[in-house]
Amino acid sequence: MRQYPPKPEKAYFFGTCLVDMAYPKAGMAAIRLMQREGVRVIFPPEQSCCGQPAYNSGFPAEARQVAEKQMEIFDKPYPIVVPSGSCAGMMRHHYPKIFGNSPLRARAEAFSERVFEWSEFLVHVLDIQLEDRGAPMTVTWHSSCHAAREMGVIGDSKALIRKLKNVTLVELENEHQCCGFGGTFSVKQPEISEAMVEDKIEDIQQTGAAALLGGDCGCLMNITGAMAHRRIPITGHHLAEFIWERIHGD
Amino acid sequence: METKDTKRVEKPFDFKANVIKALGNRQLRSNLKFAMGSMTAKRKALFSDTAAFEALRARGNAIRRRALLQLPELLEQLERKCTENGITVHWAETTDAANEIVLGILRDHGATRVVKGKSMVSEEMHLNRFLGDHGIESLETDLGEFIIQLDGETPSHIIVPAIHKNKQEIARTFHEKLPDTPYTEVVEELNAIARKTLRKKFYEGEVGLSGVNMAVAETGTLCLVENEGNGRMCTTVPPVHIAVMGIEKVVEKLSDVPPLLRLLTGSATGQLVTTYVNMITSPRKPGEKDGPREVHLILLDNGRSTILPDEKLRQTLQCIRCGTCLNHCPVYTRIGGHAYGFVYPGPIGKILTPQMEGLDRTSAIPTASTLCNACEEVCPVQIPIPDLIRRLRNESYDPDGSVCGHGVKRNLAETAVWKAWALVNRHRALNAVGTRMAGIFGPMLPRIGPLAEWTRSRNRPEFARKSLHDMAREEGISDE
Ligand code: SF4
């Protein structure tokens, strides 16, 4: 089990490129929830992407350049909070590896020690308490592969959902099965990706939930895009945005 | 490699076409879903104590690593010990050489009928076809292998070769291909039909051929696990036994066997132990009443020694062929084994096939992974399959790579795209422009390239007019 630090005065927020472009409201909600607990959130404007798209596509040198840049930007000793299990997994587990035995390796290791997935940070470091002001509703949860298998934070995300007293969580039958996104996989192997997301949607529909929650915007973009394409009226939300709206009675 | 199949003109490997064909087969998808569900559940039940399982996996990993680090010495020791025990050892660098060795042994005995136990190495050799071309009958005796041999197919799974077929399909095959066999879907009756057909053949077989799950250098022992007893029959009834084995399958000591067998059978079938565990150390000794009079061991390289020097890629050779990575793979369970086009499908195939066959023909295979890590999580010897897939993807573009066929994709536009990507993501101004453009022009983008693939089955992503960068600035989030 990971050792967690006490609540810090300041924390970095690494928004991730996908949240920046497509889910900025989720990013703002994640920041607000940290601020609400009395943390001064720092958002360095030079930040960009964790490097995973290139790394997973077979371009480690390009990934390394981008990773090095993030390490320069997030250089103070504050925790780095990431609203994505996948990007957090890249920064925590793969950054040291991509520097091999180069002099930057030690720096990458120190950096990775400071990386936290957002829900993990809220539960273990901030010990957040939530008051649900929303109407009763049923939701289901999609575990992203890297949040589950690299970061091991699914329990934390679900713990946050369970703090919302009017929200009923119905779990998926195959919760740990990949949704078929896989970054460039979805465009390189579109047929397999489609077969995977179809099964995921079927599983989601079985739960009878009105909304799908997730902690990774890649999966959400894939699943909600496929549900909308099939005119299935189940909405998808990043957990941060969902919680922010619930505690404000939306 | 080219020489192997020259006798038949085969269609070039087209992964995409294979995938589309497999996905179009609804029956296949439901067969796989059903079978995998039960196999993964059994495994999970057996390894329910996570801490104990992790400790066992670490041991398995250590044993396999230790063996590979001293592979040449262990193989020599194995040869020496086997020879002392009366087993004749043969070395084959290529599958052609291995086939010729088998043929030579058969000719020495004037044999024309071989009974075979399950062996993936013999699949690498395309042995049945080779023997057929030389007028020798080679009969598969593992039930699954027997079924697919009747249908002229290859295994779609390394442990459960006929996993792609359901009961009805097997019933039809038996009815059509075996003389005087009435149609029945009753599993016990199907088993009885196979048993009756095979029993007779065991006694007619002049040579028995089997694979090897692991060989012990210290004692010169060949271990073979199975559930049907056909393996024991093949290795004891005919007067000659030929075992074929990949050179990586050697372990150092007898004490290495129990933990590895535990991991193998638990991962493969969710069994604590298989019904038959064969430990073969010699041919029949004077005064003994049964067993073959001759035992031959063929050690096949077929590219393995080229994988060995690279300390990362070497991990591929740790594999004990349990097949559980296939059962847990979201891609394998959708497309089945045949789509992968070569002997080894699924996650292990994604890392092994390109190294054995060359990336020039197979670079599509490592792209068929979401890097979901399900394989790595279950692999009993802790092979970091996703990292090795990333490495092979990199080798596909890298003109200075080391895997055969490396750099095959180096001229694709993709290389330029990723270089541009790296530039944009190191310079805030460029990045901001890109993000803003996506927000403004995203809805207008033509449906070509990656977006066309994406929108086949999904609505296009909606890019926000205001990025998180914009919002954070406007709302006064500190930038220090
Ligand atoms: S790679 Fe691991 S899980 Fe897959 S077959 Fe080999 S040993 Fe089993």
Q: How many distinct helices of chain A?
A: 13
Mean pLDDT of chain B: 93
Shape of chain B: globular
Question: What is the topology, as strand order, of the major beta sheet of chain B?
Answer: 1-10-7-4-2-3
Rounded to an integer in angstroms, the radius of gyration calculated over CA atoms of chain A is 18 Å
Low-confidence stretches of chain A: none
Query: Which topology of the domain at 66-305 in chain B does CATH recognise?
Result: Rossmann fold
Helix content of chain A: 40-55%
Average per-residue pLDDT of chain A, rounded, comes to: 96
Distance between the termini of chain A: 36 Å
What is the rounded Rg of chain B? 25 Å
Order of strands across the main sheet of chain A: 2-1-3-4
- Report the count of strand segments of chain A: 8
C-alpha termini separation of chain B: 60 Å
How much of the polypeptide of chain A forms β-strand, as a percent range?
5-15%
Oligomer: heterodimer
Question: Are any ligands bound, and if so which?
Answer: iron/sulfur cluster
Shape of chain A: globular
Helix content of chain B: 40-55%
Give the biggest beta sheet of chain A. 4 strands, parallel
Q: Largest interface: which pair? A: A-B, 70 and 68 residues
